[in-house]
Amino acid sequence: MKTQVPEKYIIAFKKKYGEDADLNELEKIYKRSLVTPGEAVGVIAAQSIGEASTQLTLRTKHAAGLSVINTTTGLPRLVEIFDAKKDIPTPFIDIYLNSEYSKSKEKASAFANKIIEIKIEDITTSYTVSPRKKEIVFVIDKDVLKEYGFTMKEIISHLSRMKISTSVEGDKLLVVDKSASDVKKLIRLRNKIVNVNISGVPGISRAILNQDKEGNYWIKTIGTNLAEILKMEEVDVSKTVSNDIIEVSKVLGIEAARNLIIEEVRGTLENVGLTVDNRHIFLIADAMCLDGTVRGIGRYGLSGEAESVLARASFEVPFKHLIEAGLYHESDPFKYVANNIVSNQVIPVGTGEVKLVVKENGKGNNEESSGEDKKQ
After folding, report:
1. Do the Cβ atoms of 210 and 219 come closer than 8 Å?
2. How many distinct helices (H) and strands (E) make up the chain?
3. Fewer Cβ atoms within 10 Å of its own Cβ: the N or the C terminal residue of the chain?
4. For residue 129, how many C-alpha atoms fall within 13 Å in the half-sphere facing its CB?
């Protein structure tokens, strides 16, 4: 994200150095002024976000205007983000449509119905397993089958890739697996069959149609499959986004994941009326995405991978880190805050960062030399 120099500084710079003044030089000066050399930016960022997070609630809530969807908010959402969890409890996508579909309720509604995943379990009322016959009998709800517009032949065709024998008797779907030697294998087969996708986008269990202030229709889903959704011609790919940070990093890249971390943290805090300086959030997002993958801040992420043995040990499971360091002959560089605190040394931030200060002319800064300077 490019740093923008405030307009007032540009005006003052041009006033002093002329209209042709080098604004690149101004940008360098401005960037140097943002942070004092040696400032403990990591500690300040952690304190700033940590202080605000103590005021967050420990709950999920209904999404605004969508009483049928629960979304994780407050402190649990921050934990999800900073731990970089791969499986979040309430994944969703906000799907924005191209103008042809966003202006028409009928087309938008048809698209919402199109993307909902329909599995065999959605049209099944019950099942029975017969180990003796090596057979599973699924009772199909024909009314639901008709409502979705499917036929029994289509259901059988979806099972054709599996090494099983299928047949239909009235409203029953009979599946025989001659290789099944016991009831456990039949149960595993049953679990596999009920999760077979008949139509829709895998992972999208519900889709709710909504309308914004401008009258445009958009869709919020329960479940996520961003890669498949972005392939659809009805979707505006420039606006559509998932709340699953790991998925976004895989589909759109690390820069998109970094931006999502920033937006999600900022949005979570703003939902409860809290404001944290963007630079603190940027710093944490940059650290999480530094090596091209999204890493959490914890024992299995940034803290657990620190170069310093004592820094790792000061976070969690100290004995494990100290024993492993001894086994592998690790050394500690003492370049960080945590390990210097543990060893009772001056931390390398602020005034502790400064090693030696001298005058530019090379003379000392004592009273005697000052007096000589005055005489001269």
Report:
1. yes
2. 17, 12
3. C
4. 15
Supply the DSSP symbol for 55: T
How many CB atoms sit inside 10 A of residue 134's CB? 21
Within-domain flag for 26 = yes
Domain that holds residue 82: 41-62+76-88+244-297
State pLDDT tens for residues 360-375.
665 555 545 445 554 4
DSSP 8-state code for residue 161: T
Classified as helix, coil or strand, 246 is helix
CB 94 within 8 A of CB 226: no
CA-closest candidate to residue 171, choices 190, 143, 134 = 143
Quote the number of domains for the chain: 4
Say whether pLDDT at 149 is over 70: yes
Q: Which of 107, 106, 105, 73 is nearest to 92 (CA)?
A: 73
pLDDT tens profile 104-128: 999 999 999 899 988 888 888 888 8
Which pairs count as long-range contacts for 207-214, CB under 8 Å and 24+ apart, including other chains?
A: 207/95, 207/112, 207/113, 207/115, 207/116, 208/66, 208/68, 208/69, 208/112, 209/105, 209/108, 209/109, 209/112, 210/65, 210/66
Instruction: State the DSSP code for 162.
Output: S
Please state, in angstroms and rounded to a whole number, the distance separating the CA atoms of residues 36 and 316: 31
Same domain, 2 and 46: no
Q: How far apart are CA 18 and CA 24, in angstroms?
A: 14
- What token pair was written down for 349? 């931030």
- The letter for the amino acid at 105 is K
